[in-house]
Amino acid sequence: MSKIVSTLMGNKQYAEKMLLYPENHNQSISGGQSFAEIMFSEYENHSPESPASKESLFKGCALYKMIRMITFTIGGGAYLNFMGNEFGHPKRVEFPMPSNNFSYSLANRCWDLLENEDVHRNLFSFDKDLMKLDENQRVLSRGLPSIHHVNDTSMVISYIRGPLLFVFNFHPTNAYERYSVGVEEAGEYQIVLNTDEKKYGGHGLIKVDQYLQRTINKRVDGLRNSLEVFLPCRTAQVSNYLNFAFFKLFTSREQ
Predict the structure, then answer these.
(1) What residues have CB less than 8 Å from 11, skipping those under 6 apart?
(2) Where residue 201 falls among pLDDT bands split at 50, 70, 90?
(3) Which end of the chain is more exposed for a tag (fewer CB within 10 A), N or C?
(4) CA contacts within 13 A on the Cβ side of 199
(5) Residues 6 or more apart whose Cβ sits within 8 Å of residue 30
(6) CA atoms of 33 and 24, how far apart (whole Å)
(7) Cβ proximity of 236 and 167 under 8 Å
(8) Is 126 within 8 Å of 200 (Cβ atoms)?
(9) 226-249: per-residue pLDDT in tens?
(10) Which neighbouring-strand residues pair with 212?
(11) Contact of 123 with 86, CB cutoff 8 Å
């Protein structure tokens, strides 16, 4: 977890000028595998209907969403997506060149995959909502996040950016019923994006009544208050500080 954070944050002196993207760069310059093709390769090696294949695909999709979310929200003010990878493009894209006898056979993207209600449409729904999060909360324009929780043992990362609290559980098997993460401001926090929702291809383990939580007056991670959150394995969630809008309105009137 420490390496993930240090790599994505880079040198803070230049972080605001960084352009981050969760892609295989060789895909764009030499016909390399797409990011999804790499993540789902174990799935491709099994029968699509076998339990092992389905579990492999679910794990790959879970990580795919988490990696895209943390890359989008933890870095500087810009983000790049290779066209088609917002829905997990399963094949390489290769432009005509001498190495393929100037063939156009791989110079296309499989837009037809979005017609089926399966993993690709689920990933596309998640990506659209991730982009909406930026439109509504201006994530990329808020400056660098405050990273206050990085635990290599539990494999949990948490940080605050503007009114948003991001919590990632990268552990492959361990879920946490009441995991404590620090927050500075007391009040209510509501989950606004959860990678495990069924519409994104998840299990939907976080129930509706767990989406709204109130802080505890307990110092955690060096911050004055804390939340005890349910963290299924290989999931990430974003919570909005509900008092933030009122606080901004109140202070602006005072000024």
Answers:
(1) none
(2) very high
(3) C
(4) 8
(5) 94
(6) 7
(7) yes
(8) yes
(9) 999 999 999 999 999 997 554 444
(10) 190
(11) yes
Whether the per-residue pLDDT at 97 is higher than 50: the answer is yes
Q: Report the C-alpha gap between 255 and 15 in whole angstroms.
A: 32
Q: How many residues does the chain have?
A: 255
Q: 109, 132 in Cβ contact below 8 A?
A: no
User: What is the reported pTM?
Assistant: 0.88
| Distance, CA of 181 to chain centre | 18
Spatial separation of the C-alpha atoms in residues 149 and 158, rounded to whole Å: 5
Pairing of strands 78-79, 176-183: unpaired
Structure tokens, 252: 């602006």
> For the segment 145-189, what is each residue's pLDDT rounded down to a tens digit?
999 999 999 999 999 999 999 999 999 999 999 999 999 999 999
Q: Is 205 helix (H, G, I), strand (E, B) or coil?
A: coil
Q: Can you list the positions of beta strands (E) in 78-206? A: 78-79, 146-151, 156-161, 164-169, 176-183, 188-194
* Average pLDDT for the chain: 87
CA 221 from chain centre, in angstroms, equals: 22
